[in-house]
Write a structure and sequence with these properties.
heterodimer; A: about 150 residues; Ubiquitin-like (UB roll); DNA polymerase, domain 1; five-stranded mixed beta sheet; 5 helices; B: alpha+beta; Aldehyde Oxidoreductase, domain 4; seven-stranded mixed beta sheet; 20 helices; about 20% strand; binds FE2/S2 (inorganic) cluster
Amino acid sequence: MAKISVNRKQYEVDADPGTLMLWVLRDEIGLTGTKFGCGIAQCGSCTIHVDGEAKRSCVTPLSSVLGKEITTIEGLSNDLTHPLQKAWIDGDVAQCGYCQSGQIMAAATLLKNNKKPTDADIDQAMAGIICRCGTYNRIKDAIKQAAINGGK
Amino acid sequence: MTSKNDLDRRSFLKASIIAGGAAVFGFSLPVGLRAAERLGVTLEPVADFQPNAFIKIAKDGRVTVVVGQAEMGQGVFTSLPQIVADELEVDWANVSYESAPANKAFINPAMGMQGTGGSSSVKGLFAPLRKSAATVREMLVAAAAQGWNVAPETCKAESGKVIHAASGRSAAYGDLLDAAAKVAPPANPKLKDPKDFKYIGKAVKRLDSPEKVNGKAIYGIDVKVPGMLTATILRSPVIGGKVKTVDDAAAKAVKGVTSVISLEYGVAVVAENFSAARKGRSALKVTWDEGAMASVSSESIYTAFASAADKDKGLVAKKTGDVADGKAKAAKTVEAIYWTPFVAHATMEPMTFTADVRKDGAEVWGGVQAQMLVQQTVAATAGVPVDKVKVNTTLLGGGFGRRFEMDYVIDATLLSKAVGKPVKVIWTREDDMQNDVYRPATYNKMSAGIDASGKPIFWHHRVVNDAIMARAGKAFGFILKDDQLDDSSFEGAHNLPYAFPNFQCDWVRKDTGVPVGFWRSVGSSHTAFSTECFLDEVAFAAGKDPVAFRLAMLDKHPRHAAVVKLAAEKAGWGKPAEAGIFRGIAVHESFGSYVAQVAEVSVAKDGKVRVHRVVCAVDCGQVVNPDTVAAQMEGGIVYGLTAALYGEITIKDGRVQQRNFTDQKVLRMNEMPKVEVYIVPSTENHGGVGEPGTPPIAPAVVNAIFAATGKRVRSLPIKTAELAAKA
Ligand code: FES
Ligand code: FES
């Protein structure tokens, strides 16, 4: 049994230490907001925060997060009040929406470390997260909007 | 998402079946209690008033629009409710959606089945939804008027209320439900005057955004059913290969693996969770009967296509005048070969589906584009009656035509049947990339000529590729005959809008054995490239400006001409661009919408292409939601640009070479151009918007590359090495 903390809640999971966090979250804990897109750290759909930093859960083993705080899209806010969620809704960003958990989690780390990101900063931070629906420009606008509204 | 829908417990189905099972969209009425009494059926009391398949009104006045179309990002969970809200006269804040089951009531009239594709949702459902909503509105008004003992004409509906202004009375819809249910539905309700539209034509916010930003949205991969197992399938590395021998001892020994099932086309590892299934799969030892495709490669296909273009007669898709005659009279002739490779869909969510097959029926869950085909396929595969299959459509993590296919549906159905439990099948990205139904590779032999005065005199286009319908049609019960045209393979080429007095488009069908399918904008996705690039070559040969040359030949096609003019004007065509930036234009009609795009492109010394800005003009007829139109143009451009820059599936020894986003790159944020979308105001019939943004981008970019470098790119994807400046 491994003890982990996800969205400020404690869980005991019965999985091998090598089990990848994406599947621990989805299959063991039942948090399905974190998505599977490639499994090899190429698409960013599976982005979560480990101690506040963006990590690709599809290549992050359970053993590496013990004693750390994990945040998933479900833990970003419980009432859609995170500045990024508001900006996303306001800008009608999502199309199919499948990539958006990863986009928002990556953007949250960006804004935590950079209060006023430039276009180039955003490009650099977000180039790892693929959106096949092509919502990139709206994502960029929404990040800027959230930055203005005090995104963190 | 709010998709659980117990329609079969609701009254309207029983009533409609007794009424003769009319397959009329939405109006499988009569319902309502009185109607039911007339029919002699006893209806279960229902909490909500659901006068027809599309609309439910709760006592608190909330309106739920039941959407039979699949939401794959294109916005049907917003645009279709928008139509209902307007005609029903309810406030947008009180409107929500739910996903409908597979049922005849939800047949999309534009497709003749319950299906989402061909950019047809608004086109097909605008009129039926308006009529449904207007009917309900009139029933509510009639109910209120009766209660007040006034004439219905003296009442009006507004913001979820019926108002009798003369007496200052009003009643909320939620309080009128019982009375309205006793009103006979009017046969010809009066529709609103379009000038009174409140929501139609406005950029109202998407209804599905909240669940897509908090992790609550449920896609196929998120489905959880009690007792469910998870499976992954090892498939033949060679297209069409079959399982020969299986050693599954090591796989079965993996903790959590519950069984290994041999299917004809692959070996499935079924387990308690995905991690165990995947571990088990990598422990499998399987040999394959590789079959006929083992000797096929991209090169052999290209060679066969090239030879067919020269030697096979093919079928004439369209002919006017006589191209031989035109050629004889031409002062200048241009000839070229254009090539587009196989391209994968690569939806963000790989294929995934869940089935629970029992002896007497089945229930299935997943993101699908054709619910009724799914229902039939599951029934046939599981050996249960069609009406005992319940299809739950989840959100789709991208569709683009891929989720019209039944392969992943069959996977889950076979496995659930085999193990006697609900099974979710998850494809890995590699499975998805290597077992797609690809956009057909296409070889285009093109020639055209201008007369001595520089006027276009002939155009001859020979399209060589696979027939999509030869395979895909079977699911619809359609068999493509040898002498039959399949316009999904050449649409956009045979209906070229330009006025060439001598014109011919031939289609040479060449079955490659590589599975091909519907890929966002289908035939147009590649014919726009070949035709609009080659047209640029003809314009250049004539010494004409690409915009002026096009406009001169579009006299009979004012909608094409209008978008060309609008895009050119907004892009500043004819005025100098920034230093190092060059423009190209393309226009294409597909699915009833006309789209022109101007791409602004720079080409670096090393040949790297950068698209800086795309100006897009679209005429899609009447618009329901202009922001949805803009979003679909943006998305369509990214999809087409990705294919133009990177999209290529290659085959070697019958094996697909690409596996994941490492060797099949896709456009990322740092490469994203600015996109401006301009909508031509129009009262014409609705065109589609999900697909028409895709076709023009590749030719617009390639034409800009010519402006930048003087080099013609005639083969996709664009090869930067060939564009590098010679040292
Ligand atoms: S699933 Fe983790 S990066 Fe793609
Ligand atoms: S919204 Fe569909 S992949 Fe990004």
